[in-house]
Amino acid sequence: MNKLYSFFLILLYFSLTFSKSVARKPNVIFILADDLGYNELGSYGQKKIKTPHLDQLAKEGMRFTRNYSGNAVCAPSRCVLMTGKHPGHAFIRNNGELKPEGQRPIPLHEVTIAEVFKNEGYVTGAFGKWGLGGPGTEGDPMNQGFDRFYGYNCQRHAHSYYPDYLWSDRDRIPLQNNPPVPGHASLAKGADPQDPKSYEIFKGKDFSSDRINEQALKFIKKNKDKPFFLYYPTLIPHVALHVPDEELKPYLKLKWNDPPFTRSQGYGYTPHFTPRAAYAAMITRMDRYIGNVVKLIDQLGLTNDTIVIFTSDNGTTHLKLEVDYDFFNSVGKLRGLKGSLYEGGIRVPLIVKWPGRIQSGSVSDQRTGFEDWMITLHDLIDAKIPLVATHDGYNLKPSLLGKANSKRPPLYREFSGYGGQQAVWMGKWKGIRQKMIRKGKNHDPLKIELYDLSVDESETKDLASKHPDIVDKLKKMMRDQHIPSKEFPIKIID
To answer: Average pLDDT in the 416-444 region?
Structure first.
């Protein structure tokens, strides 16, 4: 009788355990680097910058080779991610400053990915750089589905890694940087640009990214027993070149030819005595933060119940003297940098890990975009509330789980900045328009460049004259996918 009773107890235990494991929805951690180029991780071919934790993530997950950010600069790219709408439909289509602090807000009626999770019973938190609506506006992250926010609300504020405050939910929290280190400044008048001491004024005491990482870890610990969505838009490696000395020292030992960035040309963020070492150190610092997150997930026994996603909001910055993208081969053989709809400005790393569901060490050439994540995650967590019909995403679940996906519809991008641009990816073809924002009366007619990316990823051979039928199809898509925006107009096509 006792043996039988014990057997039933054991059976009940395993039954309850199994039910609990089946019922638990997966946690989702979405990590977004800032201005990280396609070729700036070891797993994507980087030779100089050390990224061991992200390389390990790629070994344990799936690495994508044709992933496209939401747009070519920060705010509009993040809007695509948050709302699941491509740039021809999204509300935010360019950066835009508002006083006293913050960027143009996404409207309250927009449904964000955080709200999708929240409606499914998830705890939601954002840690890092927001940039989609200043404090107290409709776009404030606390008004857009997040239960917890810590970091920079404003993108311009985030240009300094040593500010005097950060935001915690709706409260300003002081940091120990008095005075704060500016994000934009030159050497002191009369300072010797060849003297490393001249650059000490750009070092602070309280490194904001350390504080942000600490708060992200606290969020995970606090919510380990319930499903959570952690959005981690790190500042790194967006300039200014600010990084603690302990991260810098290993790169200084390499003794690269590393001339100072003095900002003498009048543009850029803040000077640095060894800019190449600083840039590499910043990315390695980011890698360490991500390692901290993954390690904690492992320690808490949440590894198999957590989807980890890593990508970047756009490509490497175009500020050559400040960030030497040629030295680092930051975008590989791709053309273009941040601000451009050529491949180097918008094709970015994507790594996804989910043990037991996503094959470790796998590589996918599936074309993906930021608008895909709302519908993909909605399906992966087995959400019960249907999505709004206005999203533009393509469900990546089959690709992630090693199954054949249906043929992807064309991918569309537009950008009202940097002269005005449009781009469409259809099969092997890519069409791109430039210089669409015009002043005066006399201009060349709009031209669509055409590239066969299957043989020309560097976009060197314009085939538009040889394939007018393809150009016509892409032109029609550019027209059909664009809804005019009074806030971010491209008048020539509005």
So the answer is: 90
Distance (Å, whole) CA 276 – CA 302: 37
Please report, for the domain that includes residue 198, its CATH number: 3.40.720.10
Residue 17's region, left for phi above 0, alpha for psi from -120 to 50, else beta, is alpha
- The amino acid at residue 112 is T
Same domain membership, residue 462 and residue 358 = no
Q: Please compute the mean of the pLDDT values over residues 169-194 and round it to a whole number.
A: 97
Name every residue whose Cβ is closer than 8 Å to that of residue 305 and which is 6 or more positions away in sequence: 24, 26, 27
User: Are 333 and 447 contained in the same domain?
Assistant: no
Confidence check: pLDDT of 89 > 90: yes
Q: What is the CATH number of the domain that holds 453?
A: 3.30.1120.10
- The distance between the two most distant Cα atoms of the chain, rounded to a whole number of Å, is 96
**Single residue among 365, 400, 435 that ends a domain in this structure:** 400
How many CB atoms are closer than 10 A to CB 175?
A: 17
DSSP codes, 388-402: PTT------HHHHTT
- d(Cα 30, Cα 34) in Å, to the nearest integer? 13
Concatenate the DSSP letters of all residues of 150-165 into one string.
Answer: EEESSTTGGG-SS-SE
Q: What is the distance between the alpha carbons of residues 142 and 137, in angstroms, rounded to a whole number?
A: 10
Non-local (6+) Cβ contacts of 16 within 8 A are none
* Distance, CA of 139 to CA of 132 (rounded, Å): 6
- How many domains, in total, are found in the chain? 2
Same domain, 384 and 432: no
The two structure tokens encoding residue 485: 């925006």
Give the whole-angstrom CA distance, residue 286 versus residue 298.
Answer: 19
pTM above 0.70, yes or no: yes
Residue 307 in domain: yes
Task: Indicate the residue type of 52.
Answer: P
Q: Give the span between the Cα atoms of 177 and 115, in whole angstroms.
A: 34
pLDDT for residue 286 is more than 80: yes
- Give first-to-last CA distance, the chain, whole Å: 81
The answer to whether 283 and 316 are in contact (CB under 8 A) is no
Quick one: pLDDT band at residue 202, thresholds 50, 70, 90? very high
Whether 146 is covered by a domain: the verdict is yes
Statement: residue 18 has pLDDT above 60:
no
Is residue 205 domain-shared with residue 311, that is, in the same domain? yes
Indicate the pairing of strand 421-426 with strand 429-433: antiparallel
Domain that holds residue 432: 411-480
